[in-house]
Amino acid sequence: MKCRIVNFNKQKNIATIQLQDKSQKEVDASKLQIRSEIIETYQDMVNMDILNEPELLENLKLRFQQNYIYTYVGPTLIAINPFKAIDKLYDQETLNTYFSIIESASDKSLYKQLQPHVFGITAQAYKYLFENNRNQALIISGESGAGKTENAKYCMKFLTSLGQNMQTTQEKLTGIKDLNIQRRKFQDVIQFWKLSGTQKQQEMIIRVDLVNM
Questions:
Q1: Annotated binding site for ATP: which residue ranges?
Q2: Does residue 159 share a domain with residue 60?
Q3: pLDDT per residue as tens, the chain (213 positions)
Q4: Is 129 helix (H, G, I), strand (E, B) or coil?
Q5: Cβ-contact 79, 143 below 8 angstroms
Q6: In a domain, 206, yes or no
Q7: How many domains does the chain have?
Q8: What is the rounded CA–CA span in Å between residue 124 and residue 136?
Q9: CATH number at residue 69
């Protein structure tokens, strides 16, 4: 909770704080952490002036309240499951916006100028694949229900959508008319398989998915 220090006993390391309701109490100073009085949100939290757990959580909270569920911490993307649909978050217009990261060969920081997004970090990995000539990996981790599977789907949606302008060639070579349809069917099969039970174990525990593309 937010508070102000109104008195400090250096010998006992005890601070007298004033809470938002104007009440006061004494607490151990080691339990207090500095905070910013300026209400400001950051797309990339490495740019924050004050870096501690309360400030990081406050930034995530403020962004979440504005329907920004993605936030960068350097090369890491934090995703918070909104448990609701957010309009235009994954539509074609948004896809096209993040395609510009790949098309802009000169600016390596373009993905940080756009709003944090799973499309953005996927586009940057794709770009590094060719710029650095090295394999790339996207590691998606989190608790059950955090949105790992959905974000993995959107990673693959972005990558498969890159090839839509070569759709005619793909049809001739593979006979696949819509790569995104095939991707969704593949994901459904994988999801069913990893959640299915066995005779010895009624409920399968999700471990790790490894998808090579």
A1: 142-149
A2: yes
A3: 788 888 899 888 999 988 888 899 999 988 888 888 888 999 999 999 998 999 999 999 999 999 999 999 999 999 999 999 999 999 999 999 999 888 776 566 677 889 999 999 999 998 888 888 899 999 999 998 899 999 999 999 998 888 664 454 445 445 555 555 555 555 665 565 455 555 555 555 555 566 666
A4: helix
A5: no
A6: no
A7: 2
A8: 10
A9: 3.40.850.10
Residues flagged as binding site: 142-149
Nearest-5° Cα angle at 38, 78 to 40: 35
Domain membership of residue 185 (yes or no) is: no
Q: Are residues 16 and 70 in the same domain?
A: no
Measured distance CA(49)–CA(140) in Å, rounded: 28
What are the residues facing 16 on neighbouring strands? 7, 26
113 and 154 both lie in a single domain: yes
The parent domain of residue 19 ranges over 1-32
The two tokens of residue 157 are 């949606």
Cβ atoms within 10 A of the Cβ of 15, count? Answer: 21
* Cβ(14)–Cβ(29) below 8 Å: yes
Q: Which two tokens stand for residue 66?
A: 């504005």
